[in-house]
Amino acid sequence: MTASWERQTNEPARWYARLDVFRLLGPRRSIDATFRIVKESDNLTGARPGAAWYAAAKQWKWKQRAETWDEAQRSVYRELAAQRIFDAHRDRVDKIERFLDTAFAVLDIADLASMDKDEARAKLPNIRLMIRDAIAAQRKELPVDPNAVAAPEGLILSADDLLAAQRELAHWKRINRVTANHHNAGVGGDNGNENGNDNPHLGPEGSPQGPPDRTLDNNQPKEITCRPQNT
Fold first, then answer.
1. What pTM value is reported for the model?
2. 61, CA 20 to 30 Å: which among 80, 113, 164, 186?
3. Which of 193, 201, 132 is nearest to 171 (CA)?
4. How many Cα atoms within 13 Å fall on the side-chain side of residue 83?
């Protein structure tokens, strides 16, 4: 479909060219200003536009077509502005995520699992603050699920929190490795272990055997032990 500001059926080329000038003058456009611009190129001799100008502007709806074009341009500008805002937002989110990846890589190198609480508190205050600030910035940038449970205001991650998180992460990494090994080796029954399921941490018929005992100290053998849940 032809846009209203484009040349219409039977519209004379001369008057359409003048409409084009009129349109490009912007919201303060006028027939007088259009006349002054095309006067020399069209070899016009009068000081002001004659009646034919006003008749053509009315017949071919110069004002309405120019205003429609104005609105289309505003829509384009709005889309461009929204895209720039989104691009800036995405750039900030990418930087925050890279920062967090770096911070957690530092935690991996620090080997928190081998530290006691006093060592963690002494060595990790700066990284704790960095992670806290990065997570706060991330929460501002990312949309919030209205059904999500909000974290308490003023929540501060402690060195103990980081130590616990590191140990939890290491624990589940070990579980994933053991599960993969059992699955690949075809250990125990048709489904991967002696209980007939894929997860070595599930009891008979898939019932959970309970979380691993995290009270092991670092002098004990590095193995996964489980204790039954209370029923």
1. 0.46
2. 80
3. 201
4. 6
